[in-house]
């Protein structure tokens, strides 16, 4: 099982690829709505991509109140 | 459809529906590829009445308030019917709000019962103000075995021993308290009556009728006036089916269209634009020849549907596109916020029956609806039956504040006579929106008169509600405004919020302050965030009770500073 840091790293890499931004531009504490210029629907799209990668089911509510990569990683880590 | 005029309350109308169509399917709940639940009206009634019996045994009587805090799902509607059967008053709360705000609204509403989904309940029990919770009976749905419910009961095990007794109400009685905003400052709890809903449903039913087999895809949160009406009252009083999805991702929404042959769906502009983007990408990927063919077909369809919709023709011309929408779509309704005409036009040109409208919770959902006869994407349509519209103090071009009068207008804001008196004047509801009625009686909207914004997701955000988040900044005083309120703009989209800061004497803006503002801004829900700030050099005008005179301050700023002086955040 990966550590929280590894999970965060994987999320950043996947998000960068999904929204076509350089990986180096993203940091764990970044607000992904702002940094990626995405809306709540596009964030749900990212959740689908993460589900496929981590092979888990993430209910929509796991995104509620979350706007930075690190918190998202914590939510995912608790389901791995 | 039931003839709604014959009923005095929602409970009575819904009860009649359950008796009329016992074998028809009323609810389908799907999660990804799975179908969780499928209920007939008879099964729905049986489940709801067991719950109603237990609620009555626990003390829910006529007028008792019961909050519902759930995502769109079958137990929302089952719980709501149980409350209505007992003569209770519903308080539908926004599940997307932070738990602290949900607790504040629970307290404001004085709800004695509450039905809460487990994951939302878990967040509430961890909130800083959890200790203030005074709701007597909390029912938690879908709690895992062995979970600590902090004193709440399990919804699934909350069953009465005796039969529930139906409690009738009068049309003038309260039935719903719907918060249109106001979590940070002054909660705006719109108190709607049984009469409001019955009138509204009767007015809209001839345009969007339901029948056994007609299916509504419920996407907009059920606590929102649009879904409560379109995804509960309307389909149920017509014997139709409500389809709930537990996962609201674009790909599952698209799939649901075809899997359930959806008849109606209401969306907010954000979802509509996402659908538009998906289609545009698909069209862009077509080989050049097919692309040209498609453009010709779209042009033909456009030419033939200017004066009225021709669904048969559109479905034949643009078969594949219509198949992707399930083939039986009768109306795609868009509301909750202003939709750009170009987006509406995009769907109309494809022959997708797109209907925009205009409304607000205070008027129990719809004020106007665009019936596409003729197609006018630049307007929000004509007033629905029973709705009177007046344009107050019109300017030279006919634009002024939109005021409406109808039997659907709410009775009051809960426990706020002052705000009620400002909003309902001589029986007319002041919407705060700027509009104009054109020669054919269609309403055109131009902007807002009031200090607030509406996001593409249909969220109303009032500056007063987010000011608390900026309390204690290292400045003399601060205040939040809608940018378009400071500098009126003829637009209903792309609205922004901004912070006005008045620094201490001799002080200049410094990096740590900007960082503090940025950090606080980040902690806000994404739709509540500020777009920028403005440094102001004079004292804020205050009332005798030391409140900011917002209108006066806005005028001063407008006269002295241009919009481009706002620094981005």
Features:
heterodimer, A: 80 residues, mainly alpha, Non-ribosomal Peptide Synthetase Peptidyl Carrier Protein, Chain A, 4 helices, 55% helix, B: 569 residues, alpha/beta, Rossmann fold, GMP Synthetase, Chain A, domain 3, 3 domains, nine-stranded mixed β-sheet, five-stranded parallel β-sheet
Fold and architecture overview:
In chain A, helix 1 crosses helix 4. Chain A has a single domain (4-77), classed as Non-ribosomal Peptide Synthetase Peptidyl Carrier Protein, Chain A (Orthogonal Bundle). Chain A is built from four helices and no strands. By secondary structure, chain A is mainly alpha-helical. The mean pLDDT of chain A is 90. The radius of gyration of chain A is 11 Å and the shape is globular. The N and C termini of chain A lie close together (8 Å). Chain B is built from 18 helices and 28 strands. Chain B has a nine-stranded mixed beta sheet with strand order 2-1-11-10-12-13-14-15-16, with helices on both faces. Chain B has a five-stranded parallel beta sheet with strand order 4-3-5-6-7, sandwiched between helices. In chain B, strand 26, helix 17 (511-523) and strand 27 (532-536) form a beta-alpha-beta unit. In chain B, helix 4 (99-109) packs across helix 5 (118-126). Chain B is globular. The N and C termini of chain B lie far apart (51 Å).
């Amino acid at each position: 099982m990966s550590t929280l840091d590894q999970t965060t790293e994987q999320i950043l890499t996947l998000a960068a690829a999904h929204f076509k931004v350089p990986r180096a531009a993203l940091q764990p504490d970044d607000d992904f709505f702002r940094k990626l210029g995405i809306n709540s629907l596009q964030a749900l799209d990212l959740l689908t991509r993460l589900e496929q990668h981590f092979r888990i089911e993430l209910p929509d509510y796991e995104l509620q109140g979350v706007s930075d990569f690190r918190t998202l990683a914590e939510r995912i880590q608790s389901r791995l | 459809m039931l003839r709604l005029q014959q009923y005095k309350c929602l409970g009575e109308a819904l009860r009649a529906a359950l008796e009329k169509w016992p074998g028809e399917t009323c609810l389908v709940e799907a999660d990804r590829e799975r179908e969780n639940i499928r209920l007939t009206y008879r099964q729905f009634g049986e489940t709801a009445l067991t719950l109603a019996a237990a609620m009555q045994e626990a003390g829910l009587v006529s007028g008792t308030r019961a909050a519902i805090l759930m995502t769109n799902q079958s137990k929302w509607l089952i719980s709501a019917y149980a409350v209505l059967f007992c003569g209770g008053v519903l308080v539908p709360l926004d599940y997307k709000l932070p738990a602290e705000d949900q607790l504040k609204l629970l307290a404001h509403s004085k709800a004695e019962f509450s039905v809460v989904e487990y994951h939302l309940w878990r967040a509430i029990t961890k909130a800083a103000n959890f200790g203030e919770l005074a709701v007597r009976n909390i029912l938690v749905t879908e709690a895992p075995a062995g979970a600590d419910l902090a004193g709440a009961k399990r919804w699934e095990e909350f069953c009465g021993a005796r039969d529930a007794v139906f409690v009738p109400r009068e049309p003038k009685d309260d039935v719903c308290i719907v918060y249109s905003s106001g979590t940070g400052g002054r909660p705006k709890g719109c108190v709607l009556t049984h009469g409001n809903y019955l009138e509204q449903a009767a007015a809209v039913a001839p345009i969007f009728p339901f029948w056994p087999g007609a299916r509504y895809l419920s996407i907009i949160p059920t606590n929102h006036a649009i879904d409560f009406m379109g995804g509960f009252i309307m389909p149920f009083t017509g014997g139709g089916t409500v389809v709930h999805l537990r996962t609201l991702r674009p790909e599952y929404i698209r799939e649901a269209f075809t899997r359930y042959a959806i008849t109606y769906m209401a969306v907010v502009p954000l979802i509509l634009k996402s659908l538009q983007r998906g289609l545009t990408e698909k069209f862009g990927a077509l080989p050049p020849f097919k692309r040209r063919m498609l453009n010709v077909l779209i042009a033909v369809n456009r030419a033939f549907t200017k004066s009225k919709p021709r669904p048969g023709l559109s479905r034949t011309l643009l078969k594949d596109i219509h198949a992707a929408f399930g083939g039986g779509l009768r109306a795609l309704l868009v509301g909750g916020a202003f939709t750009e005409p170009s987006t509406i036009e995009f769907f109309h040109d494809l022959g997708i029956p797109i209907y925009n409208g205009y409304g607000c919770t205070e008027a129990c959902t719809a004020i106007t609806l665009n019936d596409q006869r003729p197609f006018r994407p630049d307007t929000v349509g004509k007033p629905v039956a029973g709705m009177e519209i007046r344009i107050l103090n019109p300017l030279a071009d006919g634009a002024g504040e939109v005021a409406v009068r109808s039997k659907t207008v709410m009775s009051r804001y809960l426990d706020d006579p002052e705000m009620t008196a400002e909003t309902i004047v001589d029986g007319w509801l002041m919407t705060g929106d700027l509009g104009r009625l054109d020669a054919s009686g269609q309403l055109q909207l131009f902007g807002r008169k009031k200090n607030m914004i509406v996001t593409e997701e249909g969220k109303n955000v009032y500056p007063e509600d987010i000011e608390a988040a900026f309390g204690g900044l290292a400045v003399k005083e601060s205040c939040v405004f809608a940018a378009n309120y400071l500098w009126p703009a003829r637009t209903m989209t792309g609205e922004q919020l901004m912070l006005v800061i008045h620094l201490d004497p001799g002080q200049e803006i410094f990096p740590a302050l900007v960082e503090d503002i940025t950090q606080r801004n980040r902690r806000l829900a994404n739709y509540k965030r500020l777009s920028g700030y403005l440094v102001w050099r004079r004292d804020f005008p205050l009332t005798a009770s030391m409140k900011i005179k917002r209108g006066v301050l806005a005028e001063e700023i407008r006269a002295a500073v241009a919009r481009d002086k706002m620094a981005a955040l």
